[in-house]
Amino acid sequence: MKLHASDLSVESLAPGVEGSGLLPENVKIQTPALHRPKDKGTLLFDIPGKKALRKIRVFNILGGILLIMLLIWIGMVLASNGQFAPELWGNALSVDAWTNFYIPGLLSTLEVSVLAILASILFGLFFGSLRVLPSRICRAPSATIVEFSRAVPVLLFMVFFWRFFSLIGVGEASSFWAVFFGLLLYNGSVIAELLRSGVNNLPKGQREASLSLGLTRTQSLLKVELPQSVKSMIPALVTQLVVVLKDTALGSIIMYTDLLQETRRLASANFNVLQAMTIATLLYFAICFALTRAVEHFADKWGK
Amino acid sequence: MRSRLRSVIMYMLTIMLTLMISTAPTSIARADVGTNDEAIHNPFRGQATLRIGIKYDQPGLSFKDGGTFTGLDVDVAKYIASEFGYAEEQLIFKEAPAKQRETLLQQNDVDMILATYSISEKRREMVSFAGPYFVAGQDLLVRKGDDSITGPESLDGRNLCSVTGSTSAQTIKDKFAKSVNLMEQPGYGDCISALQSGAVDAVTTDDIILAGLAAQKGAVDLKLVGKPFTQEKYGVGIKKGEVEAAVEINKAIQKMIDSGEWLRAVEKNTRGTNFQPNPQTNPSAFEDLGIIEAQREALSVDANEDNNSLSYLFAKYDILGSFLVNIELMLFSGLFSLLLGVLLLIFRIVPLSSLRLLASSFVEFFRNIPLTIVMVFMALVVFSQFKFTVSDNFDVNFFWLAVIGLTLYHSAFVCEALRSGVNTVPLGQAEAARSLGLGFRATAFKVILPQAFRGSIAPLGNTLIALLKNTTVAAAASVATETSSLMSNMIEFDPQAILLIFSIFALGYVIIIIPIGLLTTHFSDRLAVKR
Lengths: 304, 531
Fold this sequence. Notes:
The structure holds two protein chains of two kinds.
Chain A: H1 5-11, H2 41-44, H3 50-80, H4 86-93, H5 95-132, H6 136-151, H7 154-168, H8 174-200, H9 204-212, H10 217-247, H11 259-270, H12 273-303
Helix pairs in contact in A: 1-10, 5-6, 5-8, 5-10, 5-11, 6-8, 7-8, 8-10, 9-10, 10-12, 11-12
Chain B: H1 2-23, H2 26-32, E1 50-54, E2 57-58, E3 62-65, E4 68-70, H3 72-83, E5 91-95, H4 101-106, E6 112-113, H5 121-124, E7 128-136, E8 138-143, E9 159-163, H6 167-176, E10 181-185, H7 188-197, E11 202-206, H8 207-214, E12 222-224, E13 232-238, H9 243-258, H10 261-269, H11 289-299, H12 310-316, H13 319-349, H14 353-367, H15 371-383, H16 394-424, H17 427-435, H18 440-455, H19 457-470, H20 483-493, H21 498-527
Parallel strand pairs in B: 1-5, 1-6, 9-10, 9-11
Antiparallel strand pairs in B: 2-3, 3-4, 7-13, 8-11, 8-12
Helix pairs in contact in B: 3-9, 13-14, 13-16, 14-16, 15-16, 16-18, 16-19, 17-18, 19-21, 20-21
């Protein structure tokens, strides 16, 4: 059965949602069946006629009014708290705020994300390949490392590495390396698992054909099976980049000066937590959403 | 063009000159060590620059204001440096966060630290101090109209905010008011916001820091209680055992005090705060580092207790209790996000387009922002700004705020997991149901969704495992009793057992996750509709 990239992208967006790795290989993702129409909803009911359309419109308008009332209520609560004061928003959006806080923070976030995803790919390719090799001496240690790294929360890794690096004297850079290694271990393991499931989901004929050509099992894996599964992994890798990007925000808990940490500094200097956090949230959302959309676009291309 | 060239040449000349000055008298200075003369020598001779650790977030003391550094710490540091023969452009200011000050000195990343660094016996084990150059006291900051808080004793049952790991809050809890509600935040600004909105009743730390915070623009109607309940001697942190540096720094500080420059600096940096340094303790007498080091040497008896064993750690810390907190967080937010996730899924398939839009925007939004942001938002905005409280007890209150945050975030993933379950239902099922004449409700609730649930056990189980791991992020929502916070504290207090501590927590998670994984597999095999 062929693994559809679009199936993977749904679950792998949540950190750890790809699973503990404790699920056996026989849990296969089934081919999407209700997938044919773009909007699954439409199969469950008739295409609305005149009367139904009118009803829907009435309900939509009612819903819209409710939503607007909710927004007005939120706005009133905000206003009564003085959250619309122009200097609060001004300080959150000023040139100073961008050049001293958001942009340096964003650069730190991107720096550690990109380094971590690149290192994770190497880690994943290495341990993922070891896990499918026929030799048990190769499989057992890499399986232990991968399963362990997937079961332990990323934040625990980060806190541990942070304290550890400070103790052995890495100094100021310890929070950077802690974030890096925390992200590397978890996401590297996820990629290793992706690679393994990619190999396991290849048609049997691939291996049979290479064995009958006289290749050994290791040769068949390295020369025939792994390259194919790497190619099918590419959309999932970009998805993983989104996970990494979101998880860098954990770094703010261990004092890494990422976007969130810089935003908190800005907010504590100007007392505009709500305003600064809103800007930071929108920044994170814009980047992650763009990447997610790009994945969906590429998944369609690569899936064919 | 020419003037720029000239200024570059002048700059280089200055550097060369100062280099010569700072390196030339080496031999003379060395001969003078130990004598009583008043001349100040540079203990860091041979260094072209002086690296000074300060804080960035304490207005009036150590503050980074865009590209410039201001405050009393900075002024004292600049004075000492100029006495040592360094020009201002030869100074490198580095951030020295509270928890990294000792490491920075031990690793030789900075030459000295002036960062509201109180001299204490515990710190003396790792670093040495010159000074003190200022004596502060821990005090309380309250809202102007609030006369009910007159000192630390009157805090019973009230809400208090302090920065994470502060000794001040612990002192109040231990000595003055046992039933105080304590909220810990990484920065002082977060505490001030909470105080202004009324979410907490008092903020505690050293009086001079509080005065600086209260004088910041944007902080209005706050006042110092004015009854300091401790003495905090701000010292100049230096590498352990550098007696000569301490002597020279003390001479420089003495000169600063004698010349009146010190008083001017204090006045300049507390202007507008109504803060007066305590005249009985300021300026304070210096301590002789040589004597202190000798005393410490004599006193140091090897505490050779077995502090690297499982029984020691389990007796000292409530490790099982912290895991229980995470499991409770998982159970409650798991239940709620399942309910909300099902609701979202139903919204996503109904004929009403506005509900579909609402649900899919919700899911898209929460899938694409970091969980940490959601949790910080719960603590700093929902609680601190809007005073949304579930309980008067802070422990309970932040627990439920964390549950709400986790629920909002994970319900989006539950919805996606269920949707992937819908995808496992073959098209024919819907077609058959429709051709039997079933309407939307019957098709969805009697035919499609029951099969979809059975098909989505595996992704739901994975979401649950992710949720358990993500409960550690509750640390960002001020839940201080959960595992990652406890682990961080344990390593801080028992650094010798760091590997053992990490192994305990990591294995704890592995042990909890294995049964969840196995159960998931079991049920997804048994319940999946065989086709």
